[in-house]
Write a structure and sequence with these properties.
The complex is a heterotrimer.
Chain A lengths: L4 H25 L5 E4 L2 E4 L3 H23 L14 H34 L7 H4 L5 H22 L4 H19 L13
Chain B lengths: L2 H14 L2 E5 L2 E4 H18 L5 H16 L6 H18 L1 H7 L10 H10 L3 H37 L2 H18 L4 H16 L23 H28 L15 H23 L5 H15 L11 H25 L5 H12 L19 H31 L7 H20 L2 H19 L4 H24 L11 H19 L6
Antiparallel strand pairs in B: 1-2
Chain C lengths: L1 H24 L11 E5 L6 H17 L3 E5 L6 H8 L7 E6 L5 H5 L10 E9 L3 E5 L7 H9 L4 E5 L2 H14 L3 E5 L3 H10 L4 E4 L4 H5 L3 E6 L26 E7 L4 H16 L4 H9 L8 H22 L1
Parallel strand pairs in C: 1-2, 1-3, 6-7, 6-8
Antiparallel strand pairs in C: 3-10, 4-10, 5-8, 5-9
Helix pairs in contact in C: 2-9, 2-10
The chains are: A mainly alpha, B mainly alpha, C alpha/beta.
Chain lengths: 192, 524, 321
């Protein structure tokens, strides 16, 4: 039974990755070579540094993998390495909460503006309203609230009113903190 | 005019020029008000994870310039505010590190190692007092060195470091960090290589950004702040959230810590930590005086050295006050000494120094360089007056730090009352917002989350994140130094081995790696 | 009260300017932005371009009541910004700030710039660089001729530039005079100044950043890279006088995506010009202190200027290849 499966796995992954980088990514995605001769001037090209790093990763990961097999490192008691199925399940939940928050942050503002236009308003596109109260806050507050509340929900594993209050309070404080004193700072998503 | 006249003029300028208002008939100058405001702001941002001192300096510089203008009169108020932020954020950064295991600034990463265990043992108050005392001691020591040595030391250091030596010095620093931090030298090295590789994506000299896959967002490279805060802060937030989630599933409750027992800083405590402060303050000051190496490395070196010297009962990493002292004294001692190369050569060594330099550049009347400290017979060298005015502002900020800093710092500690599972999601949003506000692009937010995931996985696989982060920060400096060294030596492929100094640096780098690889220890 | 006088003067000047403006534009209704104007600055916060752009933006908000939102889009000295700007709607609400080289030499020198000069509407220039070849005074050189003389004796100097263009010019100098430099390209004027100050290089190019050091007597402009001699160093010959037939100065410029409405282009250009040309504004004082002072070119003249830049860049590249 291998004692450090994650270290060996990591070594394999990095070795493979650096080989792909060296032989496929770098040759195809960099315009200048390792050493460039350009109008009598010999210079270091853009490929030099990444190539050196890829070689470095390749060498060290092979060493690391071999050593992990030959001489597994001593673990202190209770130290676990690697991700188990609980970690993955947690990451999935976290992704949903954060992803939902970001999606709302980006799309709520434009959606509300469209809705107002549909109901007979004349706001034009969201681009024109992105510095106007209340539209400039709608996306950030909705998305930020959902993100904070959602992540608390994931960890506490239940919905509570107090978590909701904390979330809404935090988002409003942050809105005031950034947007009110500084005229030129933009809350997400208004800079894009 | 002699040296003393200049010093006196500098002090007078800070305290009397352009009074804003007066208290009991005593006029309070604008500079003094700005130092105080900066200082308070600095503690606040330092204590808020995700927005460190450099961030606050970056945001406030343009605002200050538009308030005060470009005339020499604006120099001291603006510099005073920046100095205030610098000093305040250094002590503020220790607060979340100690209370929440979340470094407020990259510099206080090592503070978490012993600070957080102390909090877990019910000693958050004591840990904060130790951090404050060590930080302010280190800072004051460094300022004294700056003021006494600035002209001489910097000229000497720069004299011996050309492009090739600078490249060699960066390589040595990286080798050292990779080898010293973390459980496994090879994992440390892989992290460093990976960090540099990431920094090389989307950069380069050619018009087409290398490795950017034709993507316009990637063409500007990964934003530095996204990568650093992602790996350091978001990665830690993810990991901490997972731990709480597991705890919740198993026990349906999350343990929050109450402060118990003696929280005061006793004379006996001071006696215990004083040697560590002395060592670390010296290390921090030396590191700070070298251009290009920052406070994060100083903290690491201070901590590592402290651990070597230490013989107490509680091991480093399990809540030793000496560990906090060693880190905080070292990282705080960088700030003052870092101004040595800035003031005498115009070359910054860390991010805070960059903003000081930017301010002097935008405002006229002060050109950092060797001429600043030149004495001209029968004349006032106005630049030297500004230099001593800046020193005065720093000393004044130190005075604030000694007298009120500790109190303000512990006020920030009311945040310990907030349950962590509620606070960390807020920290997450705050960090993402701060990054968005600075970068104004959703891409930067996605990159931060991506690097956060990377930081989480690295922690899970017990790869230390510090070599990654430092390598990411230094990568472009290293490449630039190499390119330049290669170019100015007329394309000599052996430029790294052209001078005894650079040969020494490279040899030391190899020795460090081999030494630590042979003496493999489990340090995490 | 000096402040009061300042304010009254400013009001008076603004009034005159506004009156003049009203006369010239009375025939047509003035263009008004329908929403906030985003300004993408192609360089990092805190630098010369950034400072100018933000000062101009603040003044425009004050004078016109427009809402202006500056942000920094960095990368490749403005090229990344240009690539992004190209794709934005051409309604006058998205503009960018960069240097003219981004639409000339830098665009042509890059194999994959991703845009062409016709992708943009050029709104207004603000000021011009004070491009010079600079060295520490302690070197003892008075003009570039002294450098050439020393180099002819076989000395190889370390010479720092800021772009491939400077390396090209150095190559031409080497060819013309039969000398050799070790040319190094550093990222940005600040790095070049540091390298000169610290003695890492012997001489280098400065776009105006050297002005303070030159006035303080620490550095000296050895040659001018402009078509004319530098304002502060009238004794330094131009590169053209030295037999290198290129002017390598650049102007700072506001651009918009191609095809913005003509009235929007005019309104934006006039407003920017008004701010820069008014000596009481911080923006105007800044460009006078750090660069060549106000240098506003708009409309058809600006199009001609950009076209000419491209022609020059193409000839330079042809000579080099």
């Amino acid at each position: 039974m291998q004692k450090a499966p994650w270290t060996v796995g990591l070594a394999l992954f990095l070795a493979l990755g650096s080989l792909l980088t060296l032989f496929i990514w770098i040759p195809n995605d960099i315009e200048t070579g390792v050493i460039e001769t350009f109008r009598r001037r010999v210079t270091i090209g853009d490929a030099m540094a990444p190539t050196m790093m890829a070689i470095g990763i390749l060498t060290v990961s092979i060493l690391m993998g071999v050593l992990a097999i030959v001489r597994p490192e001593p673990y202190s008691k209770g130290v676990k390495e690697g991700l188990d199925k609980h970690s993955l399940s947690f990451l999935l939940r976290l992704t949903i909460a954060i992803g939902l928050g970001l999606a709302l942050m980006i799309h709520t503002g434009p959606l509300v503006v469209d809705l107002v236009n549909l109901l007979g308003g004349d706001l034009g596109s969201y681009r024109l309203q992105k510095a106007t109260f209340p539209y400039k806050y709608i996306g950030y507050i909705t998305g930020g609230f959902v993100m904070v509340f959602g992540v608390i929900r994931v960890v506490e594993n239940r919905f509570t009113a107090s978590a909701a209050w904390v979330s809404i309070f935090a988002v409003i404080v942050m809105t005031i903190l950034y947007d009110v004193p500084f005229d030129n700072l933009l809350l997400p998503p208004n800079g894009n | 005019m002699g040296l003393l006249d200049h010093i006196w003029l500098g002090i007078v300028t800070v305290f009397t020029a352009d009074p804003m208002f007066s208290i009991l008939g005593l006029p309070i100058s604008t500079t003094i008000v700005m130092v105080i405001l900066g200082f308070l702001g600095g503690i606040f941002v330092g204590a808020t994870p995700g927005i460190g001192g450099p961030f606050a300096m970056a945001i406030s510089l343009p605002i200050l310039i538009s308030i005060f203008g470009f005339n020499p009169d604006a120099l001291l108020p603006v510099l005073g505010f920046l100095v205030g932020i610098m000093k305040g954020s250094t002590i503020g950064g220790a607060v979340p590190a100690i209370l929440f295991n979340t470094p407020g600034t990259p510099d206080s990463l090592m503070t978490t190692l012993d600070g957080y265990p102390m909090t877990k043992k019910g000693k958050p108050g004591k840990a904060l007092r130790i951090a404050h005392f060590s930080s302010v001691s280190g800072d004051t020591f460094s300022d004294i060195v700056l003021i006494t040595c600035a002209p001489f030391l910097a000229i000497l250091v720069e004299k011996f470091l050309d492009f090739p030596e600078k490249a060699a010095l960066i390589i040595l620093s990286l080798a050292f960090v990779s080898a010293v931090v973390g459980a496994n030298v090879w994992k440390g090295l892989v992290a460093a290589f990976l960090g540099m590789f990431m920094a090389y994506i989307g950069t380069g000299e050619d018009g087409y950004s290398r490795l950017s896959l034709g993507n316009d967002d990637l063409a500007g490279g990964f934003p530095l702040i996204s990568a650093v805060l992602g790996v350091l802060i978001i990665g830690e937030v993810f990991k901490a959230l997972e731990e709480m989630w597991r705890e919740m599933r198993e026990t349906a409750a999350i343990t929050n810590i109450e402060a118990t027992g003696d929280q005061k800083l006793r004379l006996s405590d001071i006696r215990r930590i004083l040697p560590f402060i002395g060592i670390s303050a010296s290390i921090g000051t030396m590191v700070g005086a070298l251009p290009g190496i920052g406070s994060t490395l100083a903290a690491t070196l201070g901590y590592a050295t402290g651990r070597k010297v230490y013989k107490g009962d509680t091991p480093f990493g399990e809540g030793a006050p000496e560990g906090i002292a060693a880190t905080e004294a070292a990282n705080s001692a960088v700030a003052g000494a870092n101004l040595i190369p800035v003031l005498s050569l115009g070359i910054p060594g860390n991010v805070s120094a960059v903003f000081i330099l930017l301010a002097t550049e935008t405002i006229s009347g002060f050109n950092p360089g060797p001429a600043v400290f030149r004495l001209v017979p029968d004349q006032i060298n106005q630049e030297m007056v500004y230099a001593f005015g800046l020193f005065t502002a720093m000393i004044f900020a130190n005075g604030l730090n000694w007298t009120f800093g500790g109190v303000f710092m512990r006020w920030m500690g009311v945040m310990v009352k907030i349950p962590k599972q509620r606070l960390l999601p807020i920290v997450l949003l705050l960090t993402l917002t701060a990054i968005y506000v600075q970068q104004t692009s959703m891409f930067a937010v996605y990159v931060t989350l991506g690097f956060g995931l990377l930081g989480y996985v690295m922690r899970k696989l017990r790869i230390s994140v510090l070599p990654f982060v430092i390598a990411f920060i230094l990568a472009n400096n290293l490449e630039e130094a190499m390119r330049q060294a290669f170019a100015v030596t007329g394309a000599d492929p052996w430029f790294l081995f052209a001078s005894p100094i650079s040969i020494t640096f490279i040899a030391l780098a190899v020795v460090v790696v081999i030494f630590f690889a042979r003496n493999q220890k489990d340090l995490s | 009260m000096s402040n009061l006088t300042k304010i009254t003067t400013r009001l008076a000047v603004a009034g005159i300017a506004a009156a003049a403006f009203a006369v010239t534009t009375s025939a047509q209704a003035e263009w008004k932005p329908k929403g906030p104007i985003s300004v993408m600055i192609g360089f990092a916060a805190g630098g010369g371009t950034d400072t100018q752009a933000r000062l101009i933006a603040a003044e425009l908000e004050k004078r016109r009541g427009w809402k202006i939102i500056p942000s920094n889009v960095t990368g490749k000295g403005g090229v990344v910004m240009a690539r992004k700007l190209k794709k934005l709607p051409n309604d006058g609400l998205s503009i960018g700030m960069a240097v003219t080289e981004v639409f000339g030499y830098n665009m042509l020198a890059s194999k994959k710039a991703g845009y062409k000069a016709s992708d943009f509407t050029y709104v207004a220039t603000t000021t011009s660089s004070q491009m010079g070849i600079v060295a520490n005074t302690s070197k003892g050189w008075k003009t570039f001729a002294d450098v050439i003389a020393a180099a002819k004796k076989g000395k190889v100097f370390k010479f720092a530039g800021m772009s491939a263009k400077h390396a090209d010019i150095n190559f031409l100098i080497e060819q013309k005079y039969g000398v050799k430099f070790n040319t190094v390209v550093l990222r940005g004027g600040r790095k070049v100044m540091n390298a000169i100050t610290a003695g890492d290089v012997d001489l280098g190019y400065g776009a105006g950043i050297q002005t303070k050091a030159v006035l303080a007597g620490k550095m000296v402009n050895l040659a001018s890279g402009l078509g004319e001699r530098l304002r502060i160093s009238p004794n330094a010959p131009t590169l053209m006088e030295m037999g290198i037939p290129y002017a390598i100065g650049a102007k700072f410029i506001f651009v918009a995506p191609a095809g913005i409405p003509a009235d929007a282009r005019k309104a934006l250009g006039d407003a920017i010009g008004e701010v820069i040309n008014d000596k009481t504004t911080k923006a105007s004082q800044f460009v006078s202190k750090a660069y060549g002072g106000p240098d506003v070119v708009t409309g058809a003249k600006l199009d001609a200027y950009i076209n000419n830049e491209i022609v020059i860049a193409k000839t330079l590249m042809k000579v080099m290849n």
